[in-house]
Write a structure and sequence with these properties.
alpha/beta, Rossmann fold, 3 domains, two-stranded antiparallel ribbon, 10 helices
């Protein structure tokens, strides 16, 4: 994957936003692999939602305290190992059973909110599915014999948002650009096993996604090893999950796409890059879901620094989706009942 992305056309390569993280991914994966990756503290994998950690409001995190963790202390030999043990000790000693019960009540309240929101929309019930325990999520909690994390509830709510606008039982092909760790696919595939899901991303995110989904759906995932040299998507097997690199996106030019999905990925790209990706979508898709910061992400003060080089905004999406009408635009709902700051869910339908 890494070799292929390095030789990919520049319009499909990682953008400036991800260049900040790029040098951190491979060393971490080489050192730790994916063992317990969903409970890994201070991991670069959290940058694309792969981790499931207890909220910083629910436990002590000394790494977030500049007194304990700063440029000076990081240079002290073995300090990181010491701080990890100290952090664990603090949480073990100072977290009482009462606070654990409070944490559970908050998580249960989030589940009840997500569940009730789904039922009001007429969507498939949250209680019919549960999260996988692959990667040993730290934030997992059990209700009526089923396991959930708050991120699982979040991805369920993205489905609930779309439900009034699309009959998932009648569509067949879903394409997602920016699959991350594959958590949205996990929710959708568990609710609608018949779906053919085609996933595009850059490595090593794509690698994490493939390994995770291959464990959750061992008989459904078509590996990048098998799609690497694919020439067409017209005759692919239905009901499978296909793993592809972003540089293979032009393969979409000759297939029908029932719904295209992008969540918090386009916002990390420049407008010209987004426009290029949306060309085949504007021609081939019937429905589009976008969850983005419609005002645009923060701009980097120079190339190679954190941020985008130019903001992609709602007007850019409208220009690139000229064959679509914007059906709905709403704040991104969180399992807490509040909204994700600056973020909006949007649904688009092809013009008649």
């Amino acid at each position: 994957m890494l070799k292929d992305v390095r030789t990919a056309p520049p319009e499909y390569a990682p953008t400036n936003y991800w260049s900040v993280y790029e040098k951190k991914f491979v060393p971490e994966l080489n050192q730790f692999g994916l063992k317990d990756f969903r409970k890994r503290q201070n991991s670069v994998l959290s940058s694309f939602g792969a981790t499931d950690l207890i909220s910083s409001f629910d436990h002590i995190n000394l790494y977030s305290n500049i007194f304990f963790y700063n440029g000076f202390t990081r240079k002290i030999p073995f300090y990181t190992a010491f701080l990890t043990k100290l952090n664990k000790t603090f949480n073990t000693v100072l977290t009482s059973r009462v606070s654990e019960e409070k944490q559970y009540k908050k998580k249960k309240a989030s589940l009840d909110f997500a569940s009730n929101t789904g039922k009001k929309a007429g969507a498939k019930h949250l209680e019919s599915i549960e999260t996988s325990l692959v990667g040993n999520p730290e934030d997992v909690f059990e209700v009526n014999g089923k396991n959930y994390t708050r991120s699982f509830l979040y991805y369920y709510l993205r489905y609930v948002y779309c439900y009034p606008f699309v009959d998932f039982d009648k569509i067949n092909t879903l394409v997602e650009l920016g699959s991350g760790a594959g958590k949205q696919t996990e929710v959708l595939k568990k609710l609608y096993p018949h779906l053919t899901i085609i996933l595009f991303d850059i490595p090593p995110q794509l690698y994490v996604c493939e390994r995770y989904l291959s464990t959750v759906f061992p008989d459904s995932v078509v590996s990048y090893k098998d799609t690497r040299d694919i020439k067409s998507l017209q005759n692919i097997e239905k009901g499978k999950i296909y793993i592809l690199g972003t540089w293979q996106f032009p393969l979409l030019n000759d297939i029908k796409i029932d719904i295209f999905w992008n969540a918090a990925s386009f916002q990390e790209m420049e407008p010209d890059v987004v426009a290029n990706y949306l060309k085949p979508i504007d021609k081939q898709a019937d429905l589009v879901f976008l969850q983005e910061e419609m005002g645009g992400k923060e701009v980097a003060h120079k190339e190679g620094k954190f941020g985008v080089l130019k903001k992609t905004t709602l007007n850019d999406y409208k220009k690139s989706l000229s064959n679509f009408e914007l059906v709905d635009l709403a704040p991104t709902l969180m399992p807490t009942g509040g909204n994700l700051p600056k973020s909006s869910d949007s649904f688009w339908r092809r013009k008649e």
